[in-house]
Specification:
CATH superfamily of the largest domain: P-loop containing nucleotide triphosphate hydrolases
Structural class: alpha/beta
CATH architecture of the largest domain: 3-Layer(aba) Sandwich
Mean pLDDT: 91
Number of domains: 2
Helix content: 40-55%
Order of helices and strands: EHEHEHEHHHHHHHEHHHHEH
CATH topology of the largest domain: Rossmann fold
Number of helices: 15
CATH class of the largest domain: Alpha Beta
């Protein structure tokens, strides 16, 4: 295996939603010859700017993000699509003599880069129909709870309302008798992980507050700001198109689904706001759970860039950047 100094560098910048990933990525670009690649399943969609916390025009002028605004909301974007796009952009950035920095909160995409994609059983229409009948009778949270009993690792990655992904994961178990997590392990996916890490010197950073209550405050403040900035009107434009529906991945995105339900009359404004904040907190919890278990699936050390000291004192932007730069330097990048 080549030494880190001989391999082309790649930086991952991960973290829960509302942790400050975009700000740090833009700041790092002032210090390093980096180009940014978005790792976010919502930012790929055009017309979904406010609710996805998409970098503003000003921010993108300072630091252009690749893989933003590359899909219409009616077109689902898969993990396989991301892998192909990300590998292409990484190669293009290296060809320019610069360093790719992949920034975002879609942990499944980061994991796919490191682990590869596992082969799963073919779709089984009868099993899927049975799961859908159960969901109609008991609700998708009940189906998600069934999945959590047999495959807690995969269930932690999927929101209970993501009906398509919940159904597929439970279908895989019922068809094969093995969970998605087990199938990944049985297929020796660490070899794919080594393939990525053999090609690249990967420095993995996580930005996060030490205290989850701080993150909760940021999430509530940000969602309320999104609403005051026109989130309802943004979703209304999507709602009025006529070709979009709540089962599409774009509309299931956290924040968007709640406003969609408000526009459909299923929630009042206060319920929409409360559920949007709760759903975002749940997303952050899943992201943090994934990251805390990252060391068992990653071939590289995870470096935590905390936004406060151990005594709860907020770090300045410069201090956060310096901490990240120290980790990047220690990785010989």
């Amino acid at each position: 295996m080549n030494s880190p100094a001989q391999k082309l560098p790649v930086i991952f910048l991960m973290g829960p939603t509302a942790s400050g990933k975009t700000d740090l990525a833009i700041a790092l670009r002032q210090h390093l010859p980096i180009e940014l690649i978005s790792v976010d399943s919502a930012l790929v969609y055009r017309g979904m700017d406010i609710g996805s916390a998409k970098p503003s025009a000003q921010e993108q002028a300072l630091a252009p993000h690749r893989l933003i605004d590359i899909r219409d909301p009616a077109e689902p974007y898969s993990v396989a699509d991301f892998l192909a796009d990300a590998e292409r952009e990484i190669a293009a950035i290296h060809a320019q003599g610069r360093i790719p920095l992949l920034v975002g909160g879609t942990m499944l995409y980061f994991r796919a880069l490191l682990d590869g994609l596992a082969e799963m059983p073919a779709a089984n229409a009868s099993v899927r129909a049975q799961i859908e009948r159960e969901a109609e009778e008991f609700g998708w949270p009940h189906i998600h709870a069934q999945l959590a009993e047999v495959d807690p690792e995969t269930a932690a990655e999927i929101h209970p309302n993501h009906s398509q992904r919940v159904s597929r994961a439970l279908e895989v178990y019922r068809v094969s008798g093995k969970t998605m997590a087990q199938l990944r392990q049985l297929q020796h996916l660490p070899s794919a992980q080594q393939s990525f890490c053999e090609r690249y010197n990967v420095c993995q950073l996580v930005i996060a507050p030490r205290d989850r209550s701080i993150l909760h405050q940021r999430i509530a403040s940000r969602y309320e700001k999104m609403l005051s900035s026109g989130l309802v009107d943004e979703v209304k434009s999507l709602h009025q198109r006529g070709d979009l529906h709540p089962d599409l991945p774009a509309i299931r995105a956290v924040g968007y689904r709640q406003v969609w339900d408000y526009l459909d009359g299923r929630l009042d404004y206060n319920e929409m706001t409360e559920r949007g904040i709760i759903a975002t907190r749940q997303l952050a919890k899943r992201q943090l759970t994934w990251l805390r278990g990252w060391s068992t699936t990653s071939n590289s050390e995870l470096h935590w860039v905390f936004t406060e000291t151990e005594h709860g004192i907020s770090l300045t932007k410069e201090e956060i950047v310096r901490c990240a730069l120290n980790f990047i330097g220690s990785a010989a990048i």
